[in-house]
Amino acid sequence: MNTKTIYGLYADDDDLLKAIKSFNNEGIAIKEVYTPFPVHGLDKALGLRKTRISDLAFFYGVYGFTLASVMMWYMMNHDWPQDIGGKPSFTFFENLPAFVPIMFEMVVFCSAHLMSLTFLVRNKMYPGAKPQNPDPRTTDDKFLMEIESNDVEKVKSAFIDTGAEEVTIKD
Amino acid sequence: MSHYESQVRDPLIIGNKSYHDISVDIAYPIEHKAGKLWWIAFGLAMVTFLFGVGCIAYTVGTGIGVWGLNRTIGWAWDITNFVWWIGIGHAGTLISAVLLLFRQRWRMSVNRSAEAMTIFAVVQAAIFPVIHMGRPWVGYWVFPIPNQFGSFWINFNSALLWDVFAISTYFSVSVVFWYMGLIPDFAMIRDRAKKPFSKKIYSFMSMGWGGKAKHWQRHEELSLVLAGLATPLVFSVHTIVSFDFSTSVIKGWHSTVYPPYFVAGAIFSGFAMVQTLLSVMRKVLHMEDYITRGHIEVMNKVILVTGGMVAVAYASEFYVGWYSGSRYEDFTYFSPGAAVGPYWWAFWALITCNILIPSLLWFRKIRRSFFWTFIISLVVNVGMWFERFDIIVVNLSRDYLPGGWTMFMPTIIDVGIFIGTIGFFFVLYLLYARSFPVIAQAELKTILKTSGEFYKKQHTEDDHHEH
Q: Using H for helix, E for strand and C for coil, what is the string for A49-73?
């Protein structure tokens, strides 16, 4: 028994969602779905867990805040405190109001950039990477479902019953 | 699947479009040769840009004495242009971030171009403080880098340094936000590309995007969080720009109204620039079905609201200037003294361009007219330039001692650099319009079934069947 990859190509997002529901009922495991745009309700239908990159964004923000605070304390209050324009720099807390704008900017800077980097790393995306979609039409107007199964005939008929335009089989 | 949307709302996509039609329409300018009009515009922009480069080279080679500055007026033309460009750069992130949080669907047709405008405008803005340093090759001294001057650190108490951090954060975060949205659209162009060279370029830029379900889920989460971060960022940037003035002790500048007043003015001018660009782009690139009369009208409403906010700020500044009875206040940029003084023309140019003419937008006919929108948007751009000129030059021209009173006259070099940045801006924008997907097509496809004209008509018919 060898496992084969079977692709079903749909022309409409509503057909795709209906197909996923019937596949779930029949107990056919869906490996991957490729769509040209974020289809509303697709993640729920596929039972995907909530992504955690927004939780990370918070910690990246905390990192930016810490970085900004330590940097400004070190440069302004510790390494070489200066008296500029009659405004001496004695302690961190006396300077604090003037430090707020840069603290805010560094929170946003670290959070936005590190979160975007996490997004790319988790998706295995980098400049020049090979396209991950098996069919180029899926970035235009087609919706592709990928299933790995031993029972090719069963999956094939399930695809055709749910209105797939095209069914292809790959070893 | 319910794709129903109230019939009260105008369709956002006109005509009988399919998903494929959207791809074709948006890829069209990239896949076809540029028209004559584009080459003429590009040539003109290139010539003015090169003239600007020449003026900058002359300034750097000779020193900033070639500008019209004098001992009383040490900031004038350059900082006016800096604030003007930064202000223009505010609409893009506002449209893409704030309106995303408010779930405004119309933003999907305009956000990409508005963000491009933001990024190109911030590039122009950054030129001015750098060349005003006189020695731009030591410009990196504004960053907190360990150095050989006895670890002589930068001054974190200074509003000018806050500006360095605010502008660099704003620029880089805007670029990232823009680019993350572009990835799926680059992938669409990549998969359509026939020529091996363009396939290679767009493959490189789309980073292997394949539209997997989990990736879309992350992408949507990323967009939402970036929008949440960019929203306070937009407001903070122009607030900090206004701190450059309001934390100083110069009459007319030392004012707590500055941050909200600057932010409202920035959105006002930014939307005006978006209107200027889009009303031309929709025609030239044949995007009339996506950037509709309705889109133009809602943006005109934003101009009307923010224009009203700046008008209130002007009125209160003028009133306080008069009511304080202080001789100094009579020399600020909004005072009876300014209205009849030597800079009366700048004062009245501001009132006319920023209050009187944009008030025409209260009329629905004018608000929905492409021609008048274009004209008024140009007028607002001019008006907002005069606002910054008034704040800076009029306030500084009357010093504390009458002996120092003087006028400011820009030199040909000043003017040349300004025109050069306009040329540079259009060079970048025109190149963008031919090589980037100018509308966020993946996002637009998500609203085709709810807000497309063809689908909306079907909804009405379905309703009749159901009831």
A: CCCCHHHHHHHHHHHHHHHHHHHHH
